[in-house]
Batch of 4 targets.
Target 1
Amino acid sequence: MKLVHTADLHLGYRAYHRTNAYGINIREADVARTFRELLDRTAEIAPDLFLVAGDVFHTVRPSNAAIADAFRRFSRFHLAAPETQVVIIAGNHDSPRAAETGNILRLFAEIPSVQVVYQEPKRLSFPQLDAAVLCLPHNALVSEVQPVIEPDPDAAVNILMAHTAHESLKLISHFGAAVMRSDDVKPEEWSYVALGHYHLYEKLAPNMVYPGAIERTSIDVWLEADQPKGFIEFDVVEGRLGFHELESPRPVIDLEPIAGRDLTPAELDQAIEAALDSVPGGIDGKIIRLRVFDVPRDVYRELDHRRIREYRTRALHFHLDARPPQIVRREGSAAPGRRLTLQEELVAFLRHRWKPDSGKVDREALIELGLRYLQQAQEAESAEGRD
């Protein structure tokens, strides 16, 4: 028996306020293109099971265009691979807080051979494969009643699919998701454990994997800049796992930082130009960040901002992240300490010091939203230049 496992499609994702000739956000079109490649290549494999482990859409209420395109693509996939059984679960991005709101993923259950689990935990049986899939969508894992995570003793093949953040991952990956502890799941008890939420490919066990997102759609895309994007093919009988890389339509490049201390404006202009000239194939249409440390405000003001605007016009997105000299302050213990960044201050306040009136506030979701707004504000400031 063979399966394909993907997650975190984030269809409808938009960024950078640039549109193509059809008026569609360029990054949204990039994600849609990669999604089509995913389905085409999965249809060629024609697996017995196609597992989509959450975050099909980037928002709870995606645009009509994103919904229509996804429905057409999944319908065409069924025609191309009619024997493949598709199982979709909801992630935190496509799960409304209130159950009565409904879930757009229900629509895809209208397609033959597609089953969707979006609210409660549910075990799906596939007698023709002698297999069972225990589905744990986001809302099932954040519920007050925790699901029983056990394989089906009557099935020869047992698969667990969950949209969750494993506790062994970096803290940033926990934002907005339930956290799975290491002792919640014993991978040796399962034929395969298909996870979603973490945007990087991560193999936690020979049969327990995050495939990562199909495109670079995280809050901090620079963490994914040099990481491959793709999907998993797993042979249950032989226990053989393969990662198939998808062709990203648009490079995301995080250039080596520049030490700006003691550089004149002219020297810094030359260093910026040299860094951008080093990009293979040029910067046109690409997503690029260049960090410059220890740049006094007066030096930044004297840079050639006309040239910087030209760079931004050529690239899809060019983020010149110019940072002023680090301020060192003394803490109560009289020991010198590093000044917290605005992002660190936000996380520390919301996680530890803020006491909301209502106990129902999802702190991690709020932190994720706050960090996203801060990133957007910083990118807008960088695009306009400082006064």
Target 2
Amino acid sequence: MGIAGSVWVSGRAEIVNDVHSDSRFVNGTVGISSLMCAPLKAKDTVVGVIKLGNDLPVMYTAEDLKLFTTLASLAAVAIENASLYEQLQETFYTTVYTLAETIEKRDTYTGNHTKRVMEYSLAIGKTLELPEKDMARLQLGAVLHDIGKIGVRDSVLLKESSLTDEEFEQIKNHPLYGEEIIRGISQLKSAIPGVKHHHEKFSGRGYPDGLKGEEIDITARIISVADSFDAMTTNRPYRKGLSLDEAFEELRKYSGSQFDPEIVDAFFASDVMEAFFSANSRQKILL
């Protein structure tokens, strides 16, 4: 509409030093007396219009318009680059999610486990007010935390009864396999702590490195709580999942030994808890 709409259609910058006498004047420009409009062009396509106006009569000149058009061109390039970056990021995350879901397809009993662990982890991170950089690491680590299970034999991973000590030792290698898989991909290296150490225990009695307390990366400590909670509340061939109350009690019981107490407290203070107790929430979470 109006002058800006005309510039959008024509693709040409304009000076309108008397806005109110212009036939294209619309109420949206009330208060503006003088105006310059320039198209934002990306690869010869107009993606927007930038306006510069003054509520006092100003005689904009051709030199003003030339400078303004140059700034508009720079802005258009920046906007296009930002859009391309967002598309690239979206493609990257979609690829990562697809890779993680492919691993899940091997075990039908853990359907959407990765998605739930990611949602729980991000809710905890939000409660802890983690910096944006750590939230990004947390998201990647949560999505990829079980990627190393691709290296575990089906006879062990899909076994419908309790594991032997030898089989459990094989399962314990999956964090190391996960590290090996993502170490060669520069965009995923930030996820290594969450992938490799999400089975470490706050007491130092976890695996694979026996790290203790804050030696364990914050993302791994968060994923540990999220992963354990989802595992406890999910049905397996050899046992029925715990109720929410039973799982909550387990988190409290092992807070300070298996889990970081601060992370457990953040879990109970997170938005996840409200979702659990809203109408039909448990069914929605599991779907």
Target 3
Amino acid sequence: MRRGIATMTLDTGKCPKWLFERMVKLGREMIQVLIAEYGPDEFIRRISDPVWFQSLGTVLAFDWNASGLTTILTAALKEAIRGAERDFGIFICGGKGKTSLKTPDEIANWGAWLNLPDKYVENLIYNSKMSAKVDSALVQDGFDIYHHAFFFSKNGAWAVIQQGMNKIKKSARRYHWSSDSATDLIVEPHKGIVSDPWQQKTLNMTSRDSADNKQLTVDIVTKGKYYNLMKDIQVLRRHSSHLSQMVSMKVNKDQLTLLNLEAREFKTHPVMTEDFSRSKYLDKILWKICDEQPKSYESLLSMKGVGPKTIRALSLVSEVIYGSPASYKDPARYSFAHGGKDATPYPVNRRRMDNSIDSLKKAVEKTRFSYTEKRNAINRLNQTR
């Protein structure tokens, strides 16, 4: 995968039973060898690598560029370690659709079974919930999250593999998180995002370029009052439908002035198409935020009920009313794990990519597969280069 970005189309239909059973069988063999070779923590770190994850799916004989690789591979790995989680030292929670909603309970159950400290388990659950919120509310790219899987070891390493779909474009996007790279859950936390190339008008509140916008948002809801915030919201509601060109509105005392902004990231500002019609639910959430006074942007995001629309409204108030812009650069223009073909943010690290594939080749050779199965698996890996 030299490009650093994988295009994934949405799958239709179901994985054949014979293929899934085979993936479970091969997956159990691969996990056993990989953990024996590298240990459970390193396995968790590697599963968070987009190219390594994709290559593992290829070894187990699933389609290289299909969205189903994410969901089926995760399900196969989860089934492969069932009953032997403690022996392997790794645990997989969540999955596709309604199964993803069970993730916190599954983490809590494993924590109780392993007798892990309460704070440790609470932190794992928090990381799971926040990664889902970030990819639905802070990265507003048009992909709805429908798959969330949380991998962790009893030693503290964790990874998140989640996927969203864009029904209109019939494509999928996979988000990778690692406990190593997500040192700050709301500032460029991804290990990589595998998707179609750049999406236009993606509100990216995880970007460092959105830092001032986020800080101003916190100031607005903590230092101001709900009434003042609603005055700003009403300004947007009155004027958004009448803007014929990209403008920024700034309130100076009681005087409303219009300021032109340069169209550096887009030709049409999202405020042009935003629906600011009255919403009792949005108003209620904004009142709750102002009342609870979150100490940080992360605390604000973690509040129950705060979702994409709330984040978008507060971001636009900070930008359009007070002149602090957010980033609209799609973070999925490349895979962070291996760089990009256009050398952004750095050239593709071919050696690192080759090392990922070579490590899987060595694992294949050490498994108890038949000679034919080993050759087929290695041939599939060679096709990924």
Target 4
Amino acid sequence: MNNLKTDAFILSGFKYGDTSKIVTLFSEEAGKFSAIVKGVRNNKSKLGGVFENMNHVNVIFSKKENRDLQFISKAECVSSFSGVKDDFDKLMVAYKLLELTSKMMYDYDVSKEVYLLLKDAFYSLNKADENINVIFLMYQIKFAVIQGIDPVNSRIRNFDGNNYVLNDSENTVKRNMFFDENKRKYIELLYAKSFSDLVSFDADAELVKQIQNAYEYHFMMSIGKYGFSKSNQIIDELNNKLYM
């Protein structure tokens, strides 16, 4: 058993027993994992408010490989993102960021690149005045590249049974609605930018929405574990946009 200190984001959580809470975190040093925080809901607990969803925290926990729930012994909140939580539109984007990360990352699969990408996305969203939906699209684009499932410029690693297989890029791109040249150029444009560049970015709202939907579908079809998104009802949208 090792004590591990790491930065993390709270992906989700629920009450457990009278005073405790079970939370799922995505961390820089240990990837995604679930943990129990004992007594956190006690009125006298110093950790009250630390483990709210989407908080950026620093935690110390005892890691045991064969245990489903780790035990967090110490924690502090680095940021609660008040600029996000006080704005409904930003809040919806934030939950999409958390959902994508939670569903696409396996337990204890460490990716510092994905963690830093999520961190940049949240801090940019917190202070953004516009282009908040573009922040999520940029996250989708860069996340796919980091995870090796870029649908535009590289071969795609698809889940087939229990094996990862490489498919023909051209056919896969067409099947996943990235065949439109305008969409592909827009994706390349965003991939080359950083979140800070979005302050002065002239976004095409309709194109952003179409590409977001295409990525949602791509993630669902590329990774069997992803399932259907709860953040938005994309299936009806896809039926209408499939051949646009």
